[in-house]
Amino acid sequence: MEALKVALLGAGGKMGCRITDNVKDLDRYVVSYVEVSPEGQARLAERGLTPTPEAAALEDADAVILALPDRLIGSITKQVVPQLKTGAMVVSLDPAAAHAGVIPIREELSYFVTHPCHPPLFHDETRPEAMRDWFGGIHAKQHIVCALHHGPESDYAKGEQLARDIYAPVMDAYRVTVEQMAILEPAMAETFAATLVTAMKEALDEVVAMGVPEDAAREFLLGHLRIEVAIVFGYAGFPFSDGAKLAIAQAYEKIFKPDWKQKVLDLDALRESVNAITGHQPAAASAQG
Q: What number of other Cβ atoms are within 10 A of residue 228's Cβ?
């Protein structure tokens, strides 16, 4: 089978280097590494790689991976998309740009969006290097989500294989829509969950300020957090104690507003969030300004 020609934009960036490390030795790809910053080029040189000029990389690319900051994807893809050959695939690593509509769509191209779930909280990893691979894509196994944003159904398999390789080692690949992926992130994982985790750290800091030894407070919180997640998500096989149930019921209304689900997971709020992430100003909002 002929190798897929891949142009990796932002190859020397943080995410670009993760992808570079995973695909550079795979025979099924011929990769052109596009990187304009001196720092990124230096990282490629450390890997024995030389950057390719963007025009040359795009000329015959079968797939283009956008390892780029969200706020730059709109402006860069306006230049990139017209240069691609018919049938090429544009691969985005985050749903924000696709959901905000900042990536220009050409009918004769395919658009694929994928994002890592990151290594699971409950896993079977025992190697120290895998245990410390917090992000995934190096040593620790992880799941991923994938969406065919535009293009023929036959292109989904090509996109999923590429996603599995750039995020390897991968367990399951879950197919979703771009909107569903945006509901997962930023709405659920960042807007909601990351905010809760931030509040947990603030509670820890407050407990320490009240005089509890920091090491004791940290280990107490993290140990309880593990078992509480196991109980709530059905891993543990047993329920909260009656005392814990009472504490949850009494605190829930103090911490959460009654309409938090409608506000945090609202689709209009989600659109505002992805617009802010990508720097996109919808036409109606621009006209009003």
A: 14
Amino acid at 221: L
Domains of the chain by residue range:
4-179, 183-284
Under 8 Å between Cβ of 217 and 207: yes
Q: What order of strands is seen across the sheet that includes strand 4-9?
A: 29-34, 4-9, 63-66, 89-92, 110-118, 142-150, 170-175
Quick one: 4-179 is in which CATH superfamily?
Answer: NAD(P)-binding Rossmann-like Domain (3.40.50.720)
pLDDT tens string 56-103: 999 999 999 999 999 999 999 999 999 999 999 999 999 999 999 999
DSSP alpha helix (H) spans, 90-233 = 95-100, 128-131, 156-166, 178-182, 195-209, 214-232
Between CA 165 and CA 171, with CA 168 as vertex, the angle to 5 degrees is: 110
**Which stretches in the chain have pLDDT values below 50?**
285-289
Tell me which residue of 22, 21, 30, 26 sits closest to 3, measured CA to CA: 30
pTM: 0.93
Cα–Cα distance measured from residue 101 to residue 275, given in angstroms and rounded to the nearest whole number? 9
